[in-house]
Amino acid sequence: MFNVEISTNPDLEDARGKAVLADIKMMQIKGVKDVHFCPVYFFSGNLTFEQIQTISQRLLTDAVSENYSIAKTDKICADKFNVIEVYYKKGVTDALALSVKKAIKSFDLDDKIIVNTAKRYYLDGQVSFGALENIALKILANSLIQEYRIEKKIL
Amino acid sequence: MKKKYCENIALSALSDAQLLQLSKTNVLALSLKEMKTVQHYFKLLKREPTDIELETIAQTWSEHCKHKTLTSPIEYQEISGAKKTSHTFNNLLKETIFEACLKLKKKWCLSVFADNAGIIEFDENYGAAFKVETHNHPSSLEPYGGAATGIGGVIRDILGVGLGAKPLADTDVFCFADPKTPAKKVPQGLHSPRRIIKGVVGGVRDYGNRMGIPTVDGAVCFDECFLANPLVYCGTMGLIPKNKISKKVSAAEFIVVVGGRTGRDGIHGATFSSVKLDKDSDVSAVQIGNPIMEKKVLDALLIARDLNLYTALTDCGAGGLSSAVGELASETGARVELEKAPLKYPGLLPWEIWISEAQERMVLAVKKKNLKRLLKIFKDKDVEASVLGNFTSDKKLTLLYNKEIIGQIQMQFLHEGLPKVSRKAVYHIAKEIKQKPIKMSAQKISAMLIKVLADLNVCSKEWIIRQYDFEVQGQTIVKPLESNSIEVSGNSDAAVIFPYTLIADTKKAIVLSNGINVSYGKINTYKMGAAVIEQALRNAVCVGANIDKISLLDNFCWGNCDNPEVLGSLAACAKACFDFSCKFGTPFISGKDSLNNEYSVGGKKFSITPTLLVSAMGIIENINNVVTLPFKKEGNKIFVLGLTRNEMGGSIFNSINKISDGILCEVFADESKPLMQKIYAAMQLHLIESCHDASEGGLGVCISQMCFCGQLGARIDIDNIKVYEKMTPAEILFSESNGRFVIEVKPENVEKIYKIFRPCIFSEVGAVGGKDLIIESAKNKMKIKQNINVLMKAWQKTLWDI
Amino acid sequence: MKKAKALILTTAGINCDFETQAALNICGARSERVHLHELISKKNKLQNYDILVFPGGFSYGDDIASGKILAYQIKDKLKDEILKFAQSKKLIIGICNGFQALVKMGLLPDEKTFKQSVTLYYNDSGKFECRWVYLKTNPQNNCIWTKNLPEIICLPIAHGEGKFITKDEKILKNLKKNNQVVFKYCDAKGDFGKYPICPNGSQENIAAISNSGGNIFGLMPHPERFIFALQSVTKKGFDDQFGWGKIIFENAVNYIG
């Protein structure tokens, strides 16, 4: 299992992160200084690291504005930021994942590869777990169709 | 006999209480009388129903599919003071809204209340189809997905009308609570209004934009009553060749389902939409939309249509395949092999496949000789198409799974077995009292004008509109944000779509507009019905529609109609629809209702104010005759057409100033219809430079908007405005009387205007010029002066960024 | 005069193909909408045309990023055919989503390297926006598509990912040096400014670029939505009848003829 995380180049405006920050401010939740948004793609099945690298480079990442990082676990690194990850519940159609699955057909891969996606938000600042949960529930995820997990920044 | 793929439901021995319990546990939403009818039917067959049979009946008999409340007998009583009158409707919709259409006998109505949408004549070759739907319950639970599937669903209605129309424009009307509602006022288990607004707008944006259908017209109303039950109305207009309007299924034709795969999404959506919500409401009723799939279906379908490869189609909406196949096969019969439906994932029970409301699916009837070509077209467009069975001549619906018969019901029982329940309805006509005279200084009026412009129900909705691609297809001539220069974001009365890419060399265009008013509904639903019909018509007339060729759609969103008072207010409103549809000569061609908009939590009930949306579709004969709202040129004369009455009831002014008295505006069709006809005549001669109607906020708002949209000031003499009775300047400016328009006329055309409009009530009230709006009254020794950009900023600021 | 033949490429999610076809036909071309699948299965078909159009829309739902999957598909399946077309000095235009695809496959700004060096990223506002903008043209530019335009024109935009960014300063410098910047967002007087004059936060307000040969043109605004005057907010165009988009498409048609 691989997970590929795409991030906006640090010198560029992360408009999608900023929009979330504005929502957090509007809800008067204090402590969050900045938000970075990263789409995440999960691949499981018969795949090599080289294949996943090619897919990340050629398909998932914009060569000018984005970077990618590949991890072999789905553990979230929370040593610098608080992290909230949002993904669809089982049974809810993940249209983006279907699109990716279709697009990678041309990479001559095993047909049984499973693709899933998630949205990861890195929140800069000192925020309580309760506040993070509030952000997840009230802004980022709809618990009806989505699930989320929270990693509080390691102090 | 034990069956492998379905369960028998032991119905025959159940008591009344048990029947009701079963209906509730299985989300069937059937009443006791209905459950007993089903029990009786199967007793006659000497067997128990299977799960899929019971589900099929529940879906087909749902409020959503059959509109049973409004088509059943209603004993209506109207009470006005000590006076009581009674009337029995055998079928409210038939005797009011349809009846008006029958009575008017307009030749240009090509298909009314018969298909997925109403169709009127566009030109010698094409018809224009229009449909507006609501998607309220799902949007309150999952605002983004709910609104997206709302717009996706109504687009499929247009795709599925006749043999398929090409969608050209979307409309959207929303009712929300104030986005600034404090969190502690939001009932438990609900999203904040702000999140609902952002989600709903995002859903319409992403679905409409990706489909490539411009969202061109709409409205947003704000009221506390929508806190627990937001309203989301989505509309689509399309063009259809006249020879593709009728469809007919024949026995032996294949049942082909095209589009998305079937999953567990949206199970019980049809029955759920008529269940009152509570915080434990069933969540699988939420569907997820995929606009690109629908776009591919659209592309493939129109190619197949033009090659005559199918003989009938309909969309999978509420009730999924059960409704779509059930509806197409109602005259013939059908045999459906459910294992042939492509699934998103394994594990679905046959009855789940049958009633799933998974999005982006259509059902077609295809003759054997055309099947191969049809399947190829869909394959080329990367859309799955599967044969599910065939239509029969036995007038039965037969459902199979792996060759086992799991259900068989007679079409007759399915479509006509629904027992009629008579309901009581009471309507109390509220007594209206004129408010004390409103005396205000010039300074106070000026400040009040700013407040009215900034009111949530008047202010600019630019933040929403700009997120929609209202220009895609290149045919939006009158846009939702009109002005004289591209830097200014103004507003407009209606949208005009000029279908030149579909019909080369055409000069004709289609006008879409709407009328809605929540605060009138709180006082008198009859008057509200009349007012919103006229508002929709005025809006259409402002941009150049011919009043003698406008059709209407109704959308009733009401509370719990088991309550006689609530049903009474609906019947009163339907009566207004009949009366004013007839008086204006504008037929209703289609409609929809959403009842039971009620949410209960912790013993507290939240219900909506009765809200009728009237959408209008009109035709413009010559696109060069369109007129927009902004003032065009310094020195031009300003006329007010129509009579101003002291009608402050339910007005924006009253709501800001917390005045509960006031007369609610009435519609005088014998005054306003001739005005509308004359406006059209004057527009054909290019005598009107700009036109806008006075509605929410009154004449002050109307003239302010024409000023700042045109970036031109005006000087108005209120003493010259025609009034019905003695009124103060504030009353003249803020009264919301119907039947009024403001027009701009070149000095050289003034004589001609007098000639055309006599003997209607109208007057010349001032001229365009400068950078201020100046309103004067010599009688009251008063002069109000306000810079137009100050007015514009007030109007734009409220919803600048949600 | 030879009648220009235009191929309007469609695929899942492309939705400006009909009006683009109408615009080209009004301007004298004979244009056809052709699905990507067909072009991939009949590879030599492309060379029968004079003009290749990547129209607007949301190809593949803009999943992953706008134009990304389309760009990948083309580079994967039609690389040689597209290069042959481009280098034979035939005309290519990418409008909105088409522009996004052209830069992401690397056909712009330099078809010779055919590598991505610029991008169109999420608008600074974080949201999709539909509005009319003023554009300043570049008289030094040799783009075939934009000849005969006055200094300032206006066109509508409608996008969520239109922020033009170059990979580095050198790329930007080269673009300017070679006069490859075709349009910049500006105000009515031609001055540059921030939002909403520049609707998306583009580097140096860049709205459109061409290759150095001037035959490949990519732009965020929609010229096909302004062929005649009534289509604009102001209902005015030039000669009381036409919109600036007409000149753009006529340039292409006349160049072929």
Describe this structure in words.
- The complex is a heterotrimer of chains A (155), B (802) and C (257).
- By secondary structure, chain A is an alpha+beta fold.
- Helices cover 29% and strands 31% of the residues of chain A.
- Chain A has a single domain, classed as 2-Layer Sandwich (Mth169, Chain: A), CATH 3.30.1280.
- A six-stranded antiparallel sheet of chain A has the order 3-1-2-5-4-6.
- Chain A is globular, with a radius of gyration of 16 Å.
- Chain B is built from 26 helices and 32 strands.
- In chain B, the strands form six sheets. Chain B has a seven-stranded mixed sheet, with helices on both faces. In chain B, strands 27-29-26-30-28-31-32 form a seven-stranded mixed sheet, sandwiched between helices.
- In chain B, strand 6 (166-176), helix 9 and strand 7 (215-222) form a beta-alpha-beta unit.
- Chain B is globular and about 90 Å long.
- By secondary structure, chain C is α/β, with parallel strands linked by helices.
- In chain C, the strands form two sheets. A nine-stranded mixed sheet of chain C has the order 2-1-3-4-11-10-9-6-7.
- Chain B binds chain C through residues 205, 209-212, 290-292, 295-296, 299, 380-382, 465-477, 479, 481-487, 489, 498, 500-502, 504, 623-624, 626, 628, and chain C through 10, 12-13, 15-16, 18-19, 21-23, 35, 37-38, 56-58, 60-62, 127-134, 154, 156, 158, 187-188, 222, 224-225, 227, 230-235.
Topology:
The complex is a heterotrimer of chains A (155), B (802) and C (257).
Chain A: E1 2-8, H1 15-26, E2 34-44, H2 49-60, E3 66-71, E4 82-88, H3 95-103, E5 114-124, H4 129-140, E6 146-151
Antiparallel strand pairs in A: 1-2, 1-3, 2-5, 4-5, 4-6
Chain B: H1 16-25, H2 32-44, H3 51-60, H4 63-66, H5 68-71, E1 74-80, E2 83-89, H6 92-104, E3 109-111, E4 118-121, E5 126-134, H7 136-141, H8 143-159, E6 166-176, H9 193-211, E7 215-222, E8 231-241, E9 254-259, H10 269-272, E10 277-278, H11 291-306, E11 312-315, H12 320-328, E12 334-337, H13 350-355, E13 361-366, H14 368-380, E14 385-391, E15 396-401, E16 404-410, H15 411-416, E17 423-428, H16 442-454, H17 462-465, E18 476-478, E19 495-497, E20 509-515, H18 518-523, H19 525-543, E21 550-557, H20 564-584, E22 588-594, E23 598-601, E24 604-607, E25 611-620, E26 637-641, H21 652-656, H22 669-684, E27 690-693, H23 699-710, E28 714-717, H24 729-734, E29 741-745, H25 750-757, E30 762-768, E31 772-777, E32 782-787, H26 788-797
Parallel strand pairs in B: 1-17, 6-7, 10-23, 12-15, 21-22, 28-31
Antiparallel strand pairs in B: 1-2, 3-4, 4-5, 5-8, 6-8, 9-13, 9-14, 11-13, 12-14, 15-16, 18-19, 19-20, 20-25, 21-25, 23-24, 26-29, 26-30, 27-29, 28-30, 31-32
Chain C: E1 5-10, H1 17-26, E2 30-35, H2 36-41, E3 51-54, H3 68-77, H4 79-87, E4 91-95, H5 97-105, E5 118-121, E6 129-137, E7 152-159, E8 163-166, H6 169-177, E9 181-186, E10 206-210, E11 216-219, H7 244-256
Parallel strand pairs in C: 1-2, 1-3, 3-4, 4-11
Antiparallel strand pairs in C: 5-8, 6-7, 6-9, 9-10, 10-11
